[in-house]
Task: structure prediction
Amino acid sequence: MAATDEREAAFYAIVDSDGRIEPRDDMPEAYRKTLIRQIAQHAHSEIIGMQPEGNWISRAPSLRRKAILLAKVQDEAGHGLYLYAAAETLGVSRDQLLELLHTKRQKYSSIFNYPTLTWADVGAIGWLVDGAAITNQVPLTRCSYGPYARAMVRICKEESFHQRQGFESLLTLTRGSAAQKAMAQDALDRWWYPSLAMFGPPDTGEQAAPGGHTEQSMRWGIKRFSNDELRQRFVDMTVPQSEVLGLTIPDPGLRWNEERGHYDFTAPDYDELFRVIKGDGPCNEQRLRHRVDAQNDGAWVREAAGAYAAKQQARRREAAA
Amino acid sequence: MRDRYALALGDDALVLAQRLGEWVARAPELEEDVALANIALDLLGQARTMLTYAGELEGTGRDEDALAYWRDDRDFRNALLVELPNGDFAVTMARQLVFAAYQYELYDRLRASTDDTLAAVAGKAVKEVHYHRDHATQWVLRLGDGTDESRRRMVAGLATVWPYAEELFDGDDVTAALSAEGVAVDPATLREPWTAYVEGVLAEAGLERPADAAPRRGGRRGLHTEHLGYLLAEMQHLHRSHPEATW
Result:
């Protein structure tokens, strides 16, 4: 009993002094489980997130844009790899985590269940979705778990680059023909609220996140700001950018509040968010099906790689004997 | 004439990049999503440089996008091999091995071109292609010498692409004239080193060289398979819907 208390005290001493917990350090089991879930779902989001943008690689309207998009989707696969590696330091395997994704026992970001219907959606994803992701993730570069914090430093750098590219792509559209500008506005109309919903349920009220996840995560130094604080930060950052683009945010309630020093805005439809998270969004079935198909179709390739590696090892052993 | 040469090299890279891009988010492993996107990106880079150069040589003001998006399949000069559908992973890797081994020998020699631009492009591309060839080699070994199933598929994949290899070594009036000037590489000279490399990989994988079949050719003259029309319809659709737009 005393030993457990001592170990827990050592853990909190590190967390409270803004230090980093490393894979070999003692940590409460609930902390470990929460981190596995959060990092895995973050990794899954990178992997599923390749699909909506990947949808436009073959149709990108210039070779330059095609190259930018390919590089971006490649980065996302790389981010997934970093994050699975970070999760593996907590004692799970990538295969186990993918199995949890494929059997709907772990989730990925709600945003990727929306379809990319036009080219402008690719720019809107870069600007809004990556913008929201960065707002969420920059505080994680200081989170208490070292491997996760370090992965986020790398990922945030690349995400910021993608976000600027997305903005620039939309800017080109809004400076272009009437049809291009309309395409950009339509994309903003469809992606605005799903992007706001990325920050999760509100902090208070009937729809607040159940079970005090936020409070516990804050105590552990995993989360530093509440969902609503981050959502507000995102709105405050994004509104001036929409003005530069000359696009209208689809919220008649949006206005600067001098007293608060923030924009007031209409909250997203959280019922819709909950529906999408539960699996009933426009593309949930399609996204998961695609991922599971890729996994199943590739099984023989992975088996071959395993069999070949085993043969090679046996040959080396034989040669050495 | 140099523009036609650059165009053929650029079209090879462009069409294969388009095919490899189709794999993204459906590869057997995340590492392969990264690798295939990476190779596609290298090829797209080569295509952009070659098409831009072809446009400059032509002197009609066509840039890389005009050449990529506003030519029909009868004007594309890529070899038939690169437009073949991806099939399963073994077909894709067979196509990659055949093509990367060819491109490696080509760019290795093109570094000595008397055309400074072509020599410079080749100097950069040869490093990329060396990696592509290694990637394909490793997979042909793993699949050929992996499980019974992977071996069966690798044999089938090689048989699918093999008839399209010969076209890579075809010369025409363009390559004949330009290689006499030291600008281009005579493709026929690549057959021997290509054969030595590819047969070495097949031998190590315990695979037999596929039986010779009637070679398929025509791409360099704009006579393609039925696959290219669909590939271009998809690739060009958005660009052509907004003819005056910049992106």
About this structure: Residues 282-320 of chain A form one domain. Chain A touches chain B through 49 residues (CB under 8 Å). The CA atoms of residues 173 and 180 of chain A lie 5 Å apart. The longest helix of chain A spans residues 146-174.
